[in-house]
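QA checklist item 7 of 12: single-chain prediction sanity check.
[x] sequence parsed
[x] length recorded as 149
[x] structure emitted
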Amino acid sequence: MNEPLTARRAASNRRAVARKLAVQALYRWQVNAGPWQDLLLEFADAEDMPKADREYFEALVRGIAEEGGAGWDRDLARFTDRAPAELDPVEHAVLLIGLFELSRRPDVPYRVVIDEGVGLARRFGATDGHKYVNAVLDRAARELRPDER
């Protein structure tokens, strides 16, 4: 078996778990705001944390919550048809993660950002929420990553 491919898959799986936990943490943060450090402590013992890329989880949560969300919501509003405050909290969390990755993580290909966001929205969001997430992240990727397309 190709060792580098296996290692890349394992790293990708660990990041996917980190994103899942970040969606849950950011959902909690929206419902009951508090310091991002509390989110890290709260989720440190999560059942899936041993399978997650803990550093990536922290980068997502800290990168979004540390700014208080207002800056991210202002940026997100450029790509949505309604105010971010009116979004379902799950889709809002997924979109914040996607926007963070598109803006600050050029090491993550835009297609991965969109695929992961759609998958999380399918798993945790409303019935057709994944379609909305797909459209918004696609719009954001066109503007934020024009050279990748």
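[x] summary fact logged: Residues 3-144 form a domain with the N-utilizing Substance Protein B Homolog; Chain A fold (CATH 1.10.940.10).
[ ] second reviewer sign-off
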